[in-house]
Write a structure and sequence with these properties.
The complex is a heterotrimer of chains A (96), B (339) and C (262).
Chain A (H helix, E strand, L loop, with lengths): L8 E7 L6 E8 L3 H12 L7 E6 L11 H5 L23
Antiparallel strand pairs in A: 1-2, 1-3
Chain B lengths: L3 H9 L8 H13 L12 H20 L1 H5 L8 H26 L5 H10 L15 H19 L8 H29 L3 H20 L11 H6 L7 H19 L9 E3 L4 E3 L5 H11 L3 H43 L1
Antiparallel strand pairs in B: 1-2
Helix pairs in contact in B: 3-5, 5-8, 7-8, 7-9, 7-11
Chain C lengths: L1 H35 L8 H29 L5 H6 L19 H23 L4 H29 L3 H14 L11 H8 L6 H18 L22 H9 L1 H5 L6
The chains are: A alpha+beta (96), B mainly alpha (339), C mainly alpha (262).
Amino acid sequence: MSDAREWPLYEIFIRSRGGLDHKHVGSVHAVDARMAIQHARDLYTRRQEGVSIWAVKSSDIVASDPNDADVLFEPARDKIYRHPTFYNIPPEVKTL
Amino acid sequence: MYTQALDQLSKEHEHTPQIDEGELNARFQQRIDNEERIEPKDWMPDAYRLTLIRQISQHAHSEVVGMLPEGNWITRAPTLKRKAILIAKVQDEGGHGAYLYSAAETLGVSREHLIGQLLAGSAKYSSIFNYPTLTWADVGAIGWLVDGAAIMNQIPLCRCSYGPYARAMVRICKEESFHQRQGYEIMITLARGTPEQKRMAQEALNRWWWPALMMFGPSDADSKHSAQSMRWKIKRFSNDELRQKFVDFTVPQAEYLGLTIPDPDLRWDEETQHYRFGEINWTEFQEVLKGNGPCNRDRMAARRRAHEEGRWVREAAQAYAEKQRKRAADNSLKVEVVS
Amino acid sequence: MSAAATVMATDAGAHAKFVYVLRLADASLILGQQLGALIGHSPAIEQDLGLANISLDLIGQARLLLTYAGEIEGANRDEDQLAFLRSESEFYNPTLVEQPNTDFAFVIARQLLMDAWQLELYDQLAQGTDTRLAEIAAKSLKETKYHFGYSADWAIRLGDGTEESHQRMQRALDALWPYTYELFDPDEIDLEISRAGIAGDLSSVRQNWDRRVNEVLEQATLKRPENRFYSWYGKRGQHSEHLGRVLAEMQYLQRTYPGAQW
């Protein structure tokens, strides 16, 4: 019943309005990049959700491994001095 | 991320040798209990993955098959405004099918494979779509009752433990908020219309009331997947809880329309502050699910026809894209030779 | 005498404008109706979505145009009375749009030929002297640019796809081509509209249409059919057998329950 080959998968990113980042919204099937943009427009912007679309072949995305999460992200946890709230400034000192 | 390739990557890690399955399972359940979301690449028990594939794909199939009963009235919608609304609504259902297939694909299964299961008759879809839309009032009743029941079922899924499913549901619920309202508006217009229109509205309510109640699934006692799905926080409320809530919401809406709910046992229970309703005909539910509803054959025939008749189009698109890639490669080769 | 003649001339102008706006409205309405029938039955979900978008645009255009036609007529007919209570011979869409959804190739070929036509027409109307039509046309032009992109894209993919898709596209194009004849053959109404500066003349539409369509056909490796004489003009209310069925379905509820509100 199923076709020999399926249309490849593209990940779709939408910029909802000027000034904002493109955000991942889901995927579409398409034979090439042009069709991916067309399909994304028809599927993901029916209610004016976007002003710009990115399409990336799903197989081209490289991601970090969740099993490495501890190694990758834990070391940043104790560097609390990177955050402004770490520092005690007397309340009478303004605009700092 | 929503990708198959990434998902395959994660499978290699599923059987990380140093940690045993029991330990992984315990950690997984801990994450669920902490209300963390599970993402495609995360380790998950096979049973969780399979449950989700089954549920999300059934949900996707339901949206796609669900285009048919209402689509039946697009060409006959009584005004241009209603026609536009109906097209937008049926289109949304197709879109929701696409979002859901997309979510299912993050679990390492292809849409083509899932659609293959539907067309082969080995996958289920919501039994409600095997009932016919005989008059325009059925379009109203579907929006009011079927979408109403669907929304009740779907809102808790926005907090489902599986990230891609939850995110798809957030999008779907946001879009569906107009579906129920447009249906109820049709019912109001008919109920206030000519005697013929009012009769049409009553008959549609008679046709859709019980099937809508069945949409919540078997009674908790008989629901085979319920308990595990609750533990995994795929499901947050029991079938009976949601069904009761739906009845409590819907009865006053029917009263407002001046229509009668086709249940002689329906009555307000002062003590429990809920409506009590009659026995659901579960035999009918099981039969319709098995393929013996009024429209099962028509629905599947329509889906198969669209798939078969579309094959040459899908193949042509692929053939064209391949030619283009080859041409681009040939051209770049020529450029290299020239330079 | 001269006052009476002026009134008569104005009346004739209103009639021409009424029929002309109906021609535009009916073209969009019937095409939108035909696409609406495909939703849920197209080759892939993405096409269900795409065709629905185009159908919605076209029905939106038809609603604006029918409302305007009703105002020109001044007989209190609204968009629905005009859409659902006129008979076949009172519909002025080109015969092309009522041709059936034989297969996806017919759908795309019909769309391509119409999109390229509406693209030029709306472009002229948007610059024309009738402000209301100019507004509607300017809005519709944006939509039509997308429609043309869609149909041209698919015509190329199918024409230059597989052996089968190529044959189907060529067959659809050959079958539909005679109906393009009336699109460029001006009659009294077209001439009057063009004299009033509302639209340009149809020969200039033809030039740009030819250029656009030829470009697509070339990329699609499709052969442009020979022009053939065809005089049974939908825009004069002379239709093929298909329109009657389209209307029977579309108008069913309004005809069965006269005067009911929906």
